[in-house]
Structures are given as C-alpha cells and as structure tokens.
Amino acid sequence: LGRYVSGIKEGHIIPGAKMRLLTPATTIGVLDAANGLGQVAGDMAIHWAIQTAKQHGLAVVTVKNSNHYGIAGYYAEQAVAQNLVAISLTNSAPLVVPTNGADVLLGTNPIAFAAPAGKHPAFLLDMATSVVPRGKLEVYDRNRREMPGGWAVDEHGYDCKNAGQVLKNLIERTGGGILPLGGRGELFSGYKGYGLALMVDILCGVLSGSAYGADVDDVHRASEGGEKRFPNVGHFFLVMDPSRFMPLEEFKDRMDDLIASLKNSRKALDQHTIFVHGEKEFAKAAVHREVGVPLSEVVTAALRKLAQGVSVEMPPFVASGVCRRDNAKIASED
Amino acid sequence: LGRYVSGIKEGHIIPGAKMRLLTPATTIGVLDAANGLGQVAGDMAIHWAIQTAKQHGLAVVTVKNSNHYGIAGYYAEQAVAQNLVAISLTNSAPLVVPTNGADVLLGTNPIAFAAPAGKHPAFLLDMATSVVPRGKLEVYDRNRREMPGGWAVDEHGYDCKNAGQVLKNLIERTGGGILPLGGRGELFSGYKGYGLALMVDILCGVLSGSAYGADVDDVHRASEGGEKRFPNVGHFFLVMDPSRFMPLEEFKDRMDDLIASLKNSRKALDQHTIFVHGEKEFAKAAVHREVGVPLSEVVTAALRKLAQGVSVEMPPFVASGVCRRDNAKIASED
C-alpha cells in the first residue's frame, strides 16, 4: 500500500487516469493505462478478456503505461471464477541479473496461470521467475542469516551469501542482484529462469509498447536526464474458454483426475503431502474468511501511519490487529 | 529417429494417419492426430495457427492423439520466420517427480517461445521444465561421474547423485526420477518448475483431450491391462501477430534494443559473453549450413543400422561422417 500512496504523492501514479482500450482485432485488446493505478488497468483488461473469451473462445490483451498491478494471480483467479483458463504476466522493476551478467536488467517478472477444477480447488500457479523474491533476502538480512549460494550475486557477478550486501548494492545501484530461477551459471539451468523472465518482458514490455528491461518501473533512473518519466509497467493477459475444446464438466473432471493423481501419488519418505499450486493459499483464505485476517503489530502500525498521512480514518476492525468486522481475536499470526 | 522407427514397427505410430482439424471458434483449432507422427501433426497445427494469426491476429491450436513431436522450438521458429510471435508446448513421457513426491508423474514438458527481431537473430527459448534432461544423466552415467545434488531423486524421493541408479530406477519403474527446474524441496523453488510442468500438461494434455500426467507416451504402462493403448501425446501452440499491436518494424527495433541492452550489459568478472536465447544455436546452424553437419561414428553407425532395418539406402553424404551434399570433410565433431 505504501508504494501506491507514495507513487500517487510523487506523481508517478495518476488516480482517475483516463484509460483507453483499442481492439486491433476481435480477440486482441491493447490498453493504454495512462499512468493510472495498475490494479485499475489490470481489472479493466482482464474483464475485457473474460467477456471476449466468453464470446469468441479466446482473448489476449496487453497493457502499457501502467503501474505495479499487485498480485499476478488475482487476475487469473477472476477468469477461473468464470470457468475460464487464464495467464497473467507483468514486468517489474529491475532486480534480476541475466546469466553471466553483473547488473540487474530484468524484474522478478511473474507468471500466473489458472485453470478451473471440479471437486478440487482451481489450479493456480503464481510464481516469480527469479529464484527467490526480494522479500526473502530482507528476511535473511533481518535475521542476520547467511543465504544459500545460488540466490544472488554481488557487484562482480559472483555468488553472494550476504543478503545485506546484495540489498545495499541494489539500493545504491552498484551492481549485482537476485538470480533467475535455476541460479547462477548453467549447473542448475539458470538460463531457463532468465529465459522465462525475458519471455514475460517481451510479452508485457516489448509487445505492449511499455518499458522493458532495466527501464521498467524505475522512475529515478529513467528521470536522470531531467525528463519526467513514469514507471511504464506492462502487463499481458491470455484468457481461453475450455468449453470450446470439450464440455466444461469433462474439462473439470480431467483437472480433478490430474490433481488427484498428484495428491495420491507416493511421497518422499520425509514428506507427508504433495501440494498442487493454489491449494495451500485457498485453504488459508478459507480460514481467514472464517476467523479474520491476522495483522501483526508492525503491519497495523504501518497502516495507521499511512492512513494518518492521507487523513483517512482507520476502520476499527483493522486497527484491532485482526482484520475482521466482528473483531474476533485469533491466536496465530502469520 | 530410432524411436520413430520402432514406434511405427510396434504400431504405436501410424504413418499416413488421417488427421482431422476442427475449428470450434475462428481463432481456435483442435487437431486429432489419429496416432500419426507427431511431426506431421505439429506441422499441420502450426501452419493452421500461422495462417489464422495472419488473418485474425491470434490463434491457439491444441493437438491430441499425437506422438513425440521432436523439437518444441522448431514449430515456434516456423512462426517467427513469418514475423509472428509463438509459443509451442508438448507433454511427454513421465520422467519428473513432483515436489515432495517419489514417483514420476510429469514429463520434461518443454516450453518454447519465439519472437522475431531485426538486426539480431530471433529470440528463441526452448527449455525443458525439468532441471536437466534425461540425456544429461546418461552422460554422467557413461563417464561414471557423481551428479550434483538437486538434479534427481532415488526411489525414496531422496536426493540422489548416482546417475546410473536413477536411470535404472526409471527403466525398472521402481520410483524416483528427475527433479523439476529449481530442484528438490523449496530452497531453490523446485515447486516453480513443478508448476510450469503442470501448466504445460494442463494445456497440452487436459485441454487438448490427450493423455496427461503419468499416462503420457507410456504405452507399456498403459497397456498393462491388456488393452492396446497409444502414446496419446498432446501439444499446444499459440501464435500472435505483433503487427496488430504496433508496426512490425517498431516491434523488431524494440526487440533489437532489448537484446542489445542485455548483450552490452556488464558481465560477471569470470564471464565474457551474455547470451540471448537462440543466439548460440543460430550461430552453430549457420556454421553447419556452410561446412556440413558433423556426424560421429556412433551416430553414422546407428543411422546405417536403422536404414538397413527398413531396407533404405543411406545417401553417400550421410554415410561419410559429415552430412553435406558435396561431402567436404571437417575437423571438429560435436
């Protein structure tokens, strides 16, 4: 939330921006988000794609001149709720070093993919194409723990286990950053994560008309020449109607069968459960819907400060430490 | 080549099968490959998608009842040659263990993605979603080298560095197999490679009407009940026309700019070159087109044996050890 508030204050995000959707072909949409909120742009784009896929079976929509759009999977989930299959991609601020490189040129560029199932919750993959997110480095830094090799590199492009150093380098732009999925070099196929990050950037940045590579969502770097620049983030959505391929119930039965075959398959001796993507998160969401969303003191304090900064009153059910209308307390925090 | 010849001999591949393409929507194709050659099915599908994308900007086509279709990137390359952007996916025989699992339930399920550039060669990513291909284990086994941890698991689902043991287990179906991209467990995000493999299987297997999971291309296992089964491999192709999004030259210029920014960026101190996907392969192809394709004695002998088995005469330029019509000799072999 903080990044959106400061984005609006600093003028990088324009609330109420007039967004414009062009349709150069029946099943293709091109949205100019006019530097508005990424969530508003993402919502507009996925809704158009959902309606178009319902009518024509298939839709692709790109978004340019946007901002950070939040959770990639959120948009794919909206399509799944309408019994559609969806891909949601976005590029993002540079944090990732290409294979053999020493400078960040790619974002954590996530891939979200969702498909509806029947008895089982929907399949919902939502993954950064980096080996770990920035937040993981921050946790290791706070706890002063050494990172495993293969997560990040220093300013020379060498493997670096010091999270604090990598984060400092990222802030000061002295080189180094997070590694793509597969780690450094070729041993664990880091060029695959690097390739996936590039694929996302080609679809979200190059194809949409947005910024790409090191220029995405990096207003400070981009404005160094004195010219005012916007984050210019790009998104890409693909929506398909499985009922054009086979009866919807058959598709869902087949999804259930695939999921069950994974869930029921033999576990590693030290493991109890094979998970399918989205399963843990849907289970957690169900609990939180029941008992409320636990908010740590740190989060509540940050929200209060943000609210005060923009003269908004905090609703009592947020201020209490548990985000639930009837204010029930729960023991565990996450 | 051997697998196709034996597939035809054993009746799992039907040469000359009558394939049937349905179009449930203007931009959606559904091909029934009728257990014919995967290459023939793949070609038919991508050609339909290319023509459709040229006409309508976008096309998706699924293929069911197919066989191993060779190189995923080959089909994406055909679209790129027509200035289109393409994704090519296929599921494949089970070799990969899901995160926390001990049995193979997924293929190496590759993702190929290609986009045309201008001055630079096209971007062409073609990657298995496993951490390494089976061939890598075979090399380590032949050389009696210990594999790094994180490539494969034994029959208990534990990390295994003995390539021979993993390969033996795979053949004898006693459990274990190759790990998804990201390795075992959560430390290097193996659930991401597992999720990508599942995404490919949902699009190629579930959505197409083909086999999925452990049933793909596994005629022996599938026929254990006595019933004759076909490999029933599935493919998925997506083709888009970038000229619907912006003028083609602008798209290519932007691709060139992104590629140049990667090529020109700072290298790790121990590296000389940052590669872009496809670059190495296009350079090698150009050399081989000039001097011929070097064939090792082992490959030539295998081809000769295959040819004799089906009473086909080997052309002299293949038999010579270098596959070139004018029969020039070259020094290096690969």
Overview of the structural elements:
The structure is a homodimer of 334-residue chains. Chain A is of the alpha+beta class and 334 residues long. Helix content of chain A is 37%, strand content 16%. The first copy, chain A, has helices spanning 2-9, 38-56, 72-80, 134-142, 163-172, 190-206, 219-222, 248-263, 279-291, 297-309, 316-319, and strands at residues 20-25, 28-32, 58-66, 85-90, 111-115, 123-127, 152-153, 177-178, 233-240, 293-294, 322-323. Chain A has a 7-stranded mixed beta sheet with strand order 1-2-3-9-4-5-6, with helices on both faces. Chain A has a two-stranded antiparallel sheet with strand order 7-8. In chain A, strand 5 (111-115) and strand 6 (123-127) form a beta hairpin. In chain A, helix 2 (38-56) packs parallel to helix 3 and helix 4 (134-142) crosses helix 5 (163-172). In chain A, 51% of the residues are buried. Residues 327-334 of chain A have low confidence and may be disordered. Chains A and B meet through strand 3, strand 5, strand 6, helix 6 and helix 8 of A and strand 3, strand 5, strand 6, helix 6 and helix 8 of B.
Summarize the structure.
The structure is a homodimer of 334-residue chains. With 334 residues, chain A is α+β, with helices and mostly antiparallel strands.
